[in-house]
Amino acid sequence: MVVVVLGAPGTILRSVMRSKMTALLQQPGYEEERLQRVAEKLPCRDVQAGLLLSLMGQPQQYSFPSIFIYGHRASGKSHVLQVLLKELELPHATVSCVECVSVVLLFEQVLLSFFGCDAASLLPRSPSLSDFVRVYRQQCSQSPAKQTRYIVMEKAELLRDTDANLLPALLRLQELVEDNVTVILLSEIVWDKFRPNTGCFEPLLLHFPDYSKGELQQILSQDRHPSYSAEFYSSYINILLGVFYSVCRDLRELRHLAALNFSKFCEPLAEGKVKDTDTHKLWRNIEPHLKKAMQTVYLREVSSLQWEQMQQMEEKETGTVRGLSAHTHVELPYYSKFLLIAAYLASYNPARTDKRFFVKHHGKIKKTNFLKKNEKTSNHLLGPKPFPLDRLLAIFYSVVDSRVAPTASIFSQISSLVTLQLLTKVSQGDLLDAPKFKCAVSLDFICAISRTVNFEILKYLYDFL
Amino acid sequence: MSTSSVSKGCFVFKPSAKKKKTPSLKDYFIHGCEGAEDSETRFQLCQNLWDKIKADTEALQDELNRKILDSLLDFTRKCSTTRQHSDWAAQMRASEIPTAALVLGVNVPDHDMTFQSLSDLLQQSVSPHVASVQAKECGALKHLMKRVLERLMDTEVTLDDEEEEVTEQTSTQLHNSVHCSLETLCDWYIAKTKKSFSGTPGKKRSSPGRDDPQQPPVVIIFKDLEAFNPRVLQDFILICSRYIQRLPLMFIFGIATSPSTIQHMLPHSVSSLLCIELFQSLSCTQHLATVIDKLILTPDFPFKLSDKVMQVLISIFLYHDFSVRNFIKGIQLALVEHFHSQPLSVLCCKKKEALLNVMQLSHTDLERIRQLPSFKRYVEKQELQEQTNLTTDDTHLKEVCRKLIKDLHKYHKNYYPILRCLHTMTSALPRYPLGKQIRELHLICLEKTVWENEDYQSAMKLLKMLAKDELITLLQRCAEILQPVKSKKMKKARVHLEELLAKFRQLDTVAAETQSCVEDSLISPVKNLGKKTDLFQLQKTLLEMNETRRSKKLNPFELLRNEVVEFIDSLVKSHLSPPETQTLNEVCYYSSSTAVRRHLNATPRTSIQAALSSPYYYLQNNSLKSEEGSVSNAAPDICIAYKLHLECGRLINLYDWLEAYATVVSAAEGNHPDSDNFGKVDEVKHARFIRAVSELEFLGFIKSTKKKTDHVARLTWGGC
């Protein structure tokens, strides 16, 4: 390819770069112009796009029956495919598996986008896979594929939870329907976790690696603010990545954070304090702000809306907004507190120690016998153990300081603690027949609760003796 | 019923249209009512009172919720407007679903009302598209989808893979049933908004406050977030976020525990799709305090609760459920019970009505009045002539009753303002001798004479130590409380209070002059101190100083303060006497705490055990009477089986049990112990035993076990 360009040196460079990129995306059967557009829209993913294109071959050629693409969140899987299929105007159906609460939705969407709504209505109520194949073949004989048809399945890992025959069938759908169709599965996890134990057709595996720091910088710099120069925005992105790259490589999140904090970055510029080339001063201004953002808005401790409001407020007022996890206090009725305490004790103390803790005159229990070395300190590391209802109530009656009648509301409090997810029911079996529970609260939480009722829980915990 | 069929068989007859008339509320009330003659009036009174209480509490609820609902509405409006911005930042930002986390407290049943008014308000002022879902109806993702779609679109939504037989019936409606996906909702929404945008503007719901009539948000309320399956919720949010560009969705999470539960339920990948803002509602104890304030501490409602009933209701609230709704239900129960069981409750109404009703009292009613303990006490205090008059002359009694009713109303009119005054004075004292909350003080006053209480005396002592500015603010607040009360005594009290306040103000001007001389007297011995160095002299002077301080003449402020405290004390003594001392208090006060407790805080296990161990308690059959701890052998089979099982250990041998049972039953049949078939197990006894055992199993006392053949395991302990 010979490029002759007259003009500024920058344009030469750019056009050389472009020609280099399109060189990768060369595939007979597609218009040159379109391929170029594709390449422009897919920065830093040209290798993958090129590979995909060569796998797809020319539009009318048969392609490989199924391709499995995996890579982390926001590594451009869906984006690359969407751009390729849309720009090159290939017939395709994109289905998100999370949306397909039943297989019928999946079938319908595929038929709808290939053959129109008439085909979709041919499906019987609650169709099976063979119904789908039958309708597909019937339609396909009327309008055979001139180009390869693509079915893109996003979040394909959810296919594992559907009928056992769905995934193997999709992998060799080309054979089943005898049509030029390719199924592309997109997932965040590797193929090894998919393989059914009955065996199946092996798809072609394609990995999308994470974007490197440089690539992230390049991509993020593209969507600059219209009223600022590209260099200025690029330096902003550089600072942003310096703070966030170590914790977050999710492009989507980074773009979101960039948008949220950009106005703060521009503030000294608007006030006329700093010139837009003075990156050091700008960095000094924005860095603590970004650090704060990492602890709050990135973790969704405060919402993006609140974050924007906080930026507008004065520095001293911002202290009033507390994050979500700062609110851990739960108000409970008096007996519910004791029930929860009893549940915690039952979950973290070995059952044989109950006598020592809760019987007034427990007689002599040898200390060496009582304190077994390996058992001690391990209970809190092992997590809560299940306990039967009887034990919970027995401990409850001994820790609560007054006589409590076994009223219906005591029992209903136990079940409301379960619905509040402070207790969890372990055995799904018969409720009449000795239900078992686990206590699902943390030590800090239970300490706070027992402080409100003047109960020293640490004295009753085996691990802290 | 006859059929035209010639063949034999079972025929199903649908019940005919004209059903038996179900008895109305009124009939239920009148049936078995104490003192039936004026039961209708009492029913009417009860009904009116309850309607008023209900309306008042609902208004109160709305009032309390208003603040939080307003901020929530603001949030929804703000969200729906920011969505339309098309500046750079809005384009770059990931489009999050605006989410309001509404923390409502652990009393989940109470939330229904809040959510109801919330969704009503939202529909009125923000968006017509509001759907609320509960966890129990959304076990799986498709159910959640179905509910959301149904509630938003008001149509049948089919789920395809279930309810085959149902669909056959509804096949006629198939044309308006739709697939259960958000795509459908999206299309529907676009069609809907287009229609309302281009369509008849006159038909459109007119709401000036709405910012953007074309794009009202679609609000989905999750009533009980904790109970939702996290998996379902995550998937639903993931799906919704795919459509957020086309469909302006918005979530409201009802949270019972704490907001951090969101982070427990949703991973970062999902919670990053939400823009969560927190809204904290009023705590339920504050809510209860306002309800008590508006409903109980007011002379407006003639119906009153005695101390014990109050105690029961409040302890159920604090110890068991934190539910204001249940508290009000408790009041309702007491109200109905009172009007149902107390014939004289006909006088429990507004003063004018009550005075009229007194004149309508029948002779039996008047006899009932004469039997009232409080009236008897009243009679004893009268002179002999008056006593005979009261017991014999009905018309005279009616006159006296009118006076007594008036007195009772006056008592209530004065009681509550003074109670509030006393509460304002004492609620800020260190260690709260008379309680932090006004309800505690109210309970003390109801129970017995408050001024004989030790805590009251210590409170008065503490009052005598208050600083001036504190005292003045407290007095001012008291005066404010007394301000709106229309009663001669209260007006007088207020005037007196104002006078005292004025005196305090005068003190300020006088104080400047007197201060110097007071200081002189104090300083003089100290001055002497400096001169003498003798130890003995020093001791002497110190003692002297101590003496002078103790016997020192009170300064004008202290005098005035004592006067104030005495004034408060006199008010308390004249107005806060317990209601039992009032004649005819039984008319207004409901005092059967056991009935309330039995109904509201039931003990099913105790009742079952009572029934099984002493069947006489429920059956009231004389042949079942037996001494403590034993069961008559004529008792029902299950009681005998229960009694025998109490004597066993963890595992019960069924055969031994059967033998023992047969022996007891034979004795009951009158067989002689020496006869041949005494204690023999025949078929009937065997069957009866089996039935008793399976009934016990059903009640949860025993269960079958695999540990040992022919044995059952006991599930309860004690009792023997």
UniProtKB/TrEMBL annotation, chain A:
GO terms for molecular function: ATP binding; DNA replication origin binding. Pfam families: AAA_16, ORC5_C, ORC5_lid. Residues 233-300 form the ORC5 lid domain. Coiled coil: none annotated. Keywords: ATP-binding, DNA replication, Nucleotide-binding, Nucleus. InterPro entries: AAA_16, ORC5, ORC5_C, ORC5_lid, P-loop_NTPase. It is found in: Nucleus. Component of the origin recognition complex (ORC) that binds origins of replication. DNA-binding is ATP-dependent. The specific DNA sequences that define origins of replication have not been identified yet. ORC is required to assemble the pre-replication complex necessary to initiate DNA replication. PANTHER family: ORIGIN RECOGNITION COMPLEX SUBUNIT 5 (PTHR12705). Belongs to the ORC5 family. Component of ORC, a complex composed of at least 6 subunits: ORC1, ORC2, ORC3, ORC4, ORC5 and ORC6. ORC is regulated in a cell-cycle dependent manner. It is sequentially assembled at the exit from anaphase of mitosis and disassembled as cells enter S phase. This is Origin recognition complex subunit 5.
Automatic annotation (TrEMBL), chain B:
Component of ORC, a complex composed of at least 6 subunits: ORC1, ORC2, ORC3, ORC4, ORC5 and ORC6. ORC is regulated in a cell-cycle dependent manner. It is sequentially assembled at the exit from anaphase of mitosis and disassembled as cells enter S phase. Residues 359-592 form the Origin recognition complex subunit 3 insertion domain. Component of the origin recognition complex (ORC) that binds origins of replication. DNA-binding is ATP-dependent. The specific DNA sequences that define origins of replication have not been identified yet. ORC is required to assemble the pre-replication complex necessary to initiate DNA replication. Binds histone H3 and H4 trimethylation marks H3K9me3, H3K27me3 and H4K20me3. This is Origin recognition complex subunit 3. Residues 196-215 are annotated as: Disordered. Pfam families: ORC3_ins, ORC3_N, WHD_ORC. It comes from Xyrichtys novacula (Pearly razorfish). One of its GO terms (molecular function) is DNA replication origin binding. InterPro entries: ORC3, ORC3_ins, ORC3_N, ORC_WH_C. One of its GO terms (biological process) is DNA replication initiation. Belongs to the ORC3 family. Its main location: nucleus. Residues 605-717 form the Origin recognition complex subunit 3 winged helix C-terminal domain. It is found in: Nucleus. The keyword Nucleus applies. Residues 1-347 form the Origin recognition complex subunit 3 N-terminal domain. Keywords: DNA replication, DNA-binding, Nucleus, Phosphoprotein. The lineage of its organism: Eukaryota, Metazoa, Chordata, Craniata, Vertebrata. It comes from the Eukaryota. GO terms for cellular component: DNA replication preinitiation complex; nuclear origin of replication recognition complex; nuclear pre-replicative complex. Signal peptide: none annotated.
